[in-house]
From TrEMBL:
Its main location: membrane. InterPro entries: Bact_2-comp_sensor_kinase, HAMP_dom, HATPase_C_sf, HATPase_dom, His_kinase_dom, Sig_transdc_His_kin-like_C, Sig_transdc_His_kin_internal. The chain crosses the membrane at residues 21-41, 303-324. One of its GO terms (molecular function) is phosphorelay sensor kinase activity. It comes from Clostridium thermosuccinogenes. Keywords: Kinase, Membrane, Phosphoprotein, Transferase, Transmembrane, Transmembrane helix, Two-component regulatory system. Its EC number is 2.7.13.3. It catalyses: ATP + protein L-histidine = ADP + protein N-phospho-L-histidine. This is histidine kinase.
Length: 599
């Protein structure tokens, strides 16, 4: 029940908001819901994806470190192998010396040939050539013989025997040099000779920290920890110097980690990304990166993601607000124009502001106001016509009786004077006006319409002294059908007035009424002046400037009483004449005021 009341209270407050406020409320509600859903759904996806990418970056760092270490190892190996295969050096160390000058000459050769190594490789702490030729010297500089002395804390005899026995050349050995107080890598290689059994070797004593630590520091970008381990498991380079010289089996790093993969292991109570890369000579590069660093970076990414979403929400809200203001301004304009219509001003318009749904409303509003304004003008015109018709009805109540009496007086006067021609004219006029007035009825029989036209033609023949030859072709079977009155007389009148048949050479007029397939076909043809194509087009148009009152009346009456079944057609050619054809249904009963044919 309480929930129902809260819902009702919310709806009441919501209904009081303007449409603009409702749309903005719904927009921000939907956006916030979508953002929360997006955050919930994407959090794990982004976390796992970034964790995977971060692990790949740790692995790539391990690969880069391994690549750099391998490259530097290769430089030292090539240098050492180049010396160990030097033929002249081997030949000089293998020969038997009897003169001291010969020994001095060989020593000068050695110093001149190989003293550049320390300049070329500054990380080399010591360069030595060991031999077992009893006839040659040892100078304790570059030229040495294995005996009781130490090399980097190791007996030279023990070390020399180990190098000679090794099947792998060159030989790497990690050691601590107490004389220098640092850790070194001893790289040794036998002097190779196919012609002598003399034993000898070349060795480079390399400062381990300077070379390998600098290589790793330059390429390591994950801000974690690194360890480089030799073939017997001794750590000889590390981020923390306390691990240098310690066997990896004695540390928390003693895990089996597949190469080219990154795993998260708990090392020293902390979860870390661990990547391993194997090098030549069974060396390994181990890279550690704390998961805390990853989480800190992920937190920064999540913060920026939220900030971007917030900025997007605010900016999109502003854009929608601007669009809503524009849209509602157009709606307000329509509302303002509607108030004008309520005050009776129908000639108002709204400016179309685009091609959207509101523009359709604006267009329909303009069409509505135009239609209302047109209907208003029609009502005003109808009221004016109604007043005029009322006046005409009043006149019609007086004029017919007065007209017939006047024509009767003229006829009796003509008879007294013996003027038969004048009597015929009066009789034609009487017939003409009787058919025209017809007590206000618009429907007559065809015979009455033909009689009316004959009366009009008779009057015109008297007026123009029979200069026009009139030919009649009337089917007797159409005479008892019903028709609209005054269909033919205006057309015949146009032949006299506009067709100017009285001034033509042949001066002919054809009038016919035929029965054809349940239809009455009227046709009036003259050989008058005719019409051009432009004049004919203007006559046929509904509001053409050349259409007269008579033709407009005929077309409106045909449309009103017969609808699509009534036809009105005009043909004309300039200088040859005009033909007007009217086709209406043949009806034996009177046509009702509003014929069903018009539907």
């Amino acid at each position: 029940m309480r929930h129902f009341k809260c819902t009702n209270a919310f709806y009441k407050r919501f209904d009081k908001l303007s449409l603009r406020s409702k749309i903005m409320f719904l927009y921000f509600a939907v956006i916030l819901v979508l953002i929360n859903m997006l955050m919930v759904m994407s959090n794990n996806i982004i976390y796992n994806s970034y964790r995977k990418d971060y692990g790949i970056s740790v692995l790539e760092s391990a690969k880069q470190v391994a690549k750099n270490v391998e490259f530097r190892k290769d430089v030292y190996k090539r240098t050492l192998l180049h010396i160990s295969f030097d033929g002249e050096l081997i030949q000089r160390l293998s020969q038997k010396y009897e003169q001291y000058s010969d020994c001095w000459d060989t020593a000068n050769y050695i110093y001149n040939s190989f003293s550049f190594i320390r300049d070329y490789l500054p990380e080399v702490q010591d360069f030595r050539i060991y031999h077992t030729n009893k006839t040659f010297i040892k100078d304790m500089g570059i030229i040495w013989m294995p005996d009781e002395h130490l090399i980097a804390g190791i007996s030279s005899e023990e070390w020399f025997a180990e190098v000679m026995r090794s099947t792998t050349q060159p030989v790497w050995r990690f050691a601590y040099d107490p004389r220098k107080g640092n850790y070194v890598m001893i790289l040794s290689s036998r002097l190779n000779s196919l012609t002598s059994s003399m034993e000898g070797c070349v060795c480079l004593v390399i400062k381990s920290k300077e070379i390998f630590s600098s290589i790793v520091d330059d390429s390591f970008s994950t801000h974690g920890e690194y360890y480089i381990v030799n073939e017997d498991g001794t750590i000889f380079a590390a981020t923390d110097a306390k691990y240098v010289g310690v066997n990896i089996a004695d540390t928390s790093l003693n895990h089996t980690i597949p190469e080219n993969e990154t795993e998260v292991l708990n090392i020293g109570g902390t979860d870390r990304f661990v990547a391993v890369q194997h090098l030549s000579d069974n060396w390994r590069v181990i890279i550690l990166s704390s998961i805390t660093q990853f989480q800190n970076k992920y937190t920064i990414i999540k913060f920026w993601f939220l900030a971007i979403m917030l900025i997007f929400t605010v900016l999109s809200g502003l854009v929608i607000l601007m669009c809503l203001n524009k849209m509602f301004a157009r709606l307000d304009q329509i509302g303002e124009r509607m108030s004008y219509i309520m005050k009776g001003q129908f000639d108002v318009k709204v400016q179309k502001g685009g091609s959207d749904e509101i523009s359709v409303l604006e267009e329909q509003f303009n069409l509505m106001t135009s239609r209302l304004n047109g209907l208003l003008q029609e009502v005003i015109s109808a009221q004016n016509r109604q007043k005029e018709e009322a006046l005409k009805v009043l006149e019609a109540q007086i004029n017919p009786h007065f007209l017939y009496n006047t024509l009767g007086i003229i006829r009796w006067e003509a008879l007294d004077m013996g003027n038969e021609k004048l009597c015929n004219l009066v009789d034609a006029m009487t017939t003409f006006y009787r058919r025209v007035l017809n007590k206000g009825k618009p429907i007559i029989k065809v015979r009455d319409e033909i009689e009316h036209v004959r009366a009009y033609v008779s009057i015109q023949q008297i007026r123009y002294r029979d200069v026009v030859q009139v030919k009649w072709d009337i089917d007797s079977e159409v005479l008892d059908f019903y028709t609209i009155k005054l269909l033919l007389q205006p057309i015949v009148e146009n032949s006299y007035i506009h067709g100017m048949i009285t001034s033509a050479n042949a001066r002919k007029l054809w009038i016919s009424a035929k029965y054809d397939n349940d239809c009455i076909v009227y046709q009036v043809r003259d050989n008058g002046v005719g019409m051009s194509e432009a004049e004919l087009k203007s006559v046929l148009e509904e509001n053409g400037k050349n259409i007269g009152i008579g033709l407009r009346y005929i077309k409106e009456m045909i449309r009103h009483y017969y609808g699509d079944k009534g036809k009105f057609h005009v043909e004309s050619e300039k200088g040859k004449g005009t033909t007007v054809t009217i086709k209406i249904p043949a009806l034996s009963d009177e046509i009702p005021e509003r014929s069903a044919m018009n539907v």
